[in-house]
Design a protein that fits this description.
The structure is a homodimer of 430-residue chains. Chain A has three domains: 101 residues, Rossmann fold, CATH 3.40.50; 155 residues, Dihydrodipicolinate Reductase, domain 2, CATH 3.30.360; 83 residues, ACT domain (Alpha-Beta Plaits). The first copy, chain A, has 13 helices and 17 strands. In chain A, a hairpin with a 2-residue loop joins strand 10 and strand 11.
C-alpha cells in the first residue's frame, strides 16, 4: 500500500461529520501507528449548507457522490448514509469495483446485502469493514473474527440497541410511561426525532443479530423469519410488576445454534435484577459470547452515538492501513455455509402473562383452566384487584412452554368477554 | 507466507499440552480460515514421561529445546515454559533471530523483557504475540491495539488475577478463612500447588498492569516502583465487615495517567456491591477501559485455565497465519515513549482502617485524635466490642487522604500498647 491515502466520506449526518473531524484530529497519531498519511479529498451529502456540529472545507464537497469516483482516486470510502439500498448500496458497490476499501457503520446494508458485497470485495481484493454496525464502540466483530477465532461459539446474545435500553431503564427510573420517555429520548438524541420505529420494533437489533450470527457461525446471512418483537407494547405497569418480582425488562437479541439449527430472535425479556444483563442500563450495549474453549465472554460499552461509532470506524481504518486484507466475514465467501433455521414453534420459555380482567367470580379459574388445558403449568400468580374500577390484574409466571403452545392457548382469549384487553406476554430469559 | 507451517511447542505443562491437543483438533478449521496447513514438528519439556492430560507423539520430543532450531525449520514457536528468564528468554530470542514468529502466554517474560524482545522481532520482521499473557481468554490486548486504536485512553483497570478473585469470592461464599480457601483453590487447580506466592502477592497482576500500560499509553514498559499489595493479609473478618457495609473486597490492578504521569498499582480494594466490578466473582477477570471518544468499555471472561489461554494463543496464531506482520506493542519500538512515574505518595483514597484494640476507656478517642492530627477525617466508625476477650474491633472509613499522610499517621501506631496488632488498611475504590 502506498504512503499517501485518499479518503472520501459519503454522508455527513451525526456520524459522518464527527468522523470527518476525528480523522483530521488524529492524522498524526494515525501516521505514527501505521506510517500512512491520510487525506480527506472528498465529502458528499444531500445538503451542503445544513447546520452541522463541525465544519468541513466546502471545496471538497460533492452533491453527487458518484462523481467523486470520476474525479478522484479514492483509496478508502466511508459510507455513512445509512440506507439498506439506494445510494448507500450504489456507492459501496462502485467503490469496491474501483478497488477502493470500504468502511461503513451501516447495519441495514450489511444485514441485507453483506453476502454479495463481501464477494465483490474479495473479488477486487479490497476490504469491506463494518465494525461500527454492531454495538457502536464495542469491537465485537473483530473479537469474534480474530480474538476468539477457532473457538466453537454456540450462542451470542445481548443488549444490542441503546435507544430501547435507555427507554426501558428510564421508564423504571423516573416512573413515567413509554410515550413520555420516548419524547425525552428524542430530545436527548437517543432516539430518532423523525421516525424511531426501526429501533423500537426490534428491526435494528435484528439486523445486528444477523450480522453476529454470520460471524459467529460462519454462515451466510440468514433470511429466517424468527420472532421479532419490539418494546412498543411494554407498559409502565409491566416494568413495575417485574420490579416487584425482582426482574427487569430488557430487549434482547439472541443468536443460537439449537440442534444444529440456527435460531435468531429479538424480543423483550424478563431478566433477573441480580444477573449481569439485568444491570446493563441506559444507552449501554452488552454482548455475551458462549464458546469453547474460552467459556463465557462479555463485552460492554456505549452502543450508540457519534463518539463510540467513530472509534469503531477508525479501528477499521487502522486495520486497513496496516495492510491487512481480510475476508469481510472472517472466512472466504465460498466457504460460508447455509444453516437451516430452527423451527420457532418449539422455542420454549417460562412466560410472564398479564391479564386485565373484569372483577367477577370465576375469571381466574377460567384462565388457569385454559392454561392447564394446554399443559402450561403455573409457577406463580399475583392477582391485584382494582375495586374502584371493578377490575383486576392477574399476572401469571408459567413454567417452560413452547411458542406454538402458548400461541394456541392465547388465541382462545380473543374476544373473551371477561378480558379487558388481549393478554400481555413477555418471555423470561432462561 | 508459504502454505505449510511448521510449529514447535516448548513447555508441556497444563497450557502447552492443552494447546498441542487443540492445534491438532482445529487443524482443518485453521486451514479453512487461513488457507495454511499447520504441522507440529517438535515439542520440548523437562520431563518426557510425566503424566499429562493429553498424549503427544514421542518421536517429535526434544529434551533440549535449543536443538529444535538446529534440526527443524520452525515457522512459529509457542513458548509455554513461563519463566521470566532462563530457557524461556533464551528460546524466544533464538526463535526471533532465526526469523520464527513467537507466541507466548508468558506475562513475566513480556513484563520484564518485552521492550528488547519486541525490538528483536521488529528487526527480524516477525511477530511476537502475547494476547494470552493478560486476562486469559479475553482478547484485551488486541482490543486495545486494534479495536480501540486511535482512542485516547486515560485509564485501564480491573480484576486481572483469577486465583485471588476466586479466593476472595470463596471466603465470602463459604465463610472460611484465607488458608482453608487457598487449599481448596490448590486442589481445584485455581492456585499453584507448589508456590502460589506470585498470584497472592500481586506480582502476577502487576506484570499484567505493566503490559496493559505499555499498550494503552504507547510507552515503554515501566520499571516504576508503585504500590503492590496482595491479598495475603485479608482476613475473613474484613470480608464480613465489608459485606455489612455493602462492599466487597477485590484485588484491582490499575494503570492510569494522572497529570501526564503514569500511575500503576495493584492492591485490594473495597468496591461497592452494587458496582459492576463488585459482581465479577470467582475465577472471572474483567478489564475496564476509559477512553475518548469510545467512553467506558468493559471486557469480561475467564481469566485463567488452559481453555481460555489456548483460545488466546490460537487467536495469535490465526493473526500470524493471515499474514499480518504487526508491531508487538501496536507501534514501532522507536516511537514508544517513556512516561514519568506519578509520585505514589500523592495517591489518594478513602480508607478502611481496622484496629484491634484492648477494651479500655479512651482508646477510640486516642485513635481519632491521632487521625485528626494528620487531617484524616472520619466518615464512619463501627466499634464492635468482644467483652469475653476484653478487646474490641474498631473500623473506620475515612474521607480521602494521601498515601504519604496515612503512612506517617499509621507509623504512630507501631508499638502502641493499646493495639493488639498493627492496623489493617484497605483502600476504597473511588
Amino acid at each position: 500500500m502506498k504512503k499517501n491515502i485518499n479518503i472520501a466520506i459519503v454522508g455527513l449526518g451525526q456520524i459522518g461529520i464527527y468522523l470527518h473531524n476525528e480523522l483530521n484530529l488524529k492524522k498524526k497519531d494515525i501516521e505514527k501507528k501505521t506510517g500512512k498519511k491520510i487525506k480527506i479529498v472528498a465529502v458528499s451529502a444531500k445538503n451542503k449548507n445544513k447546520k452541522r456540529r463541525f465544519s468541513f472545507p466546502k471545496k471538497i464537497f460533492y452533491k453527487d457522490p458518484i462523481k467523486i469516483f470520476e474525479n478522484e482516486n479514492i483509496d478508502i470510502l466511508f459510507e455513512c448514509v445509512g440506507l439498506s439500498d439506494g445510494i448507500s448500496k450504489q456507492i459501496v458497490e462502485l467503490a469496491l469495483r474501483k478497488k477502493s476499501h470500504v468502511i461503513t457503520p451501516n447495519k441495514a446494508l450489511i444485514a441485507k446485502h453483506g453476502d454479495t458485497l463481501s464477494k465483490l470485495a474479495e473479488l477486487n481484493r479490497v476490504n469491506l469493514e463494518f465494525e461500527a454496525s454492531v454495538a457502536g464502540g464495542i469491537p465485537i466483530l473483530r473479537t469474534i473474527k480474530e480474538g476468539l477465532a477457532t473457538n466453537k461459539i454456540n450462542k451470542v446474545y445481548g443488549i444490542l440497541n441503546g435507544t430501547t435500553n435507555y427507554i426501558l431503564s428510564e421508564m423504571e427510573n423516573i416512573n413515567e410511561p413509554f410515550d413520555k420517555v420516548l419524547k425525552k429520548a428524542q430530545i436527548l438524541g437517543y432516539a430518532e426525532p423523525g421516525n424511531p420505529k426501526l429501533d423500537l420494533n426490534g428491526f435494528d437489533a435484528f439486523a445486528k443479530v444477523r450480522i453476529l450470527s454470520a460471524l459467529a457461525f460462519n454462515n451466510k446471512i440468514s433470511k429466517s423469519k424468527c420472532i421479532m418483537e419490539g418494546i412498543e407494547n411494554i407498559e409502565l405497569k409491566d416494568i413495575k410488576i417485574a420490579n416487584q418480582l425482582n426482574y427487569r425488562i430488557k430487549l434482547l437479541g439472541i443468536s443460537e445454534i439449537i440442534n444444529n439449527k440456527l435460531f435468531e430472535t429479538v424480543h423483550p425479556c424478563l431478566v433477573k435484577k441480580s444477573s449481569y444483563i439485568g444491570n446493563v442500563n441506559g444507552v449501554m450495549n452488552a454482548v455475551i459470547i458462549e464458546g469453547k474453549p474460552v467459556g463465557e465472554s462479555i463485552l460492554q460499552g456505549e452502543g450508540a452515538g457519534a463518539g463510540p461509532t467513530s472509534s469503531s470506524l477508525l479501528s477499521d481504518l487502522l486495520s486497513i492501513l496496516r495492510g491487512n486484507i481480510k475476508y469481510p466475514f472472517g472466512i472466504a465467501s465460498n466457504k460460508r455455509a447455509t444453516i437451516n433455521t430452527y423451527n420457532k414453534d418449539y422455542y420454549s420459555n417460562s412466560l410472564y402473562l398479564r391479564f386485565e380482567v373484569k372483577d367477577k367470580q370465576g375469571v381466574l379459574s377460567s384462565i388457569t383452566n385454559r392454561l392447564s388445558k394446554f399443559k402450561i403449568s403455573v409457577k406463580r400468580i399475583i392477582q391485584t384487584p382494582d375495586k374502584k374500577n371493578n377490575r383486576a390484574t392477574i399476572v401469571i409466571i408459567t413454567h417452560k412452554t413452547t411458542e406454538i403452545n402458548v400461541r394456541k392457548c392465547l388465541s382462545n382469549f380473543k374476544n373473551n368477554k371477561n378480558l379487558i384487553k388481549f393478554p400481555t406476554l413477555i418471555r423470561l430469559y432462561n
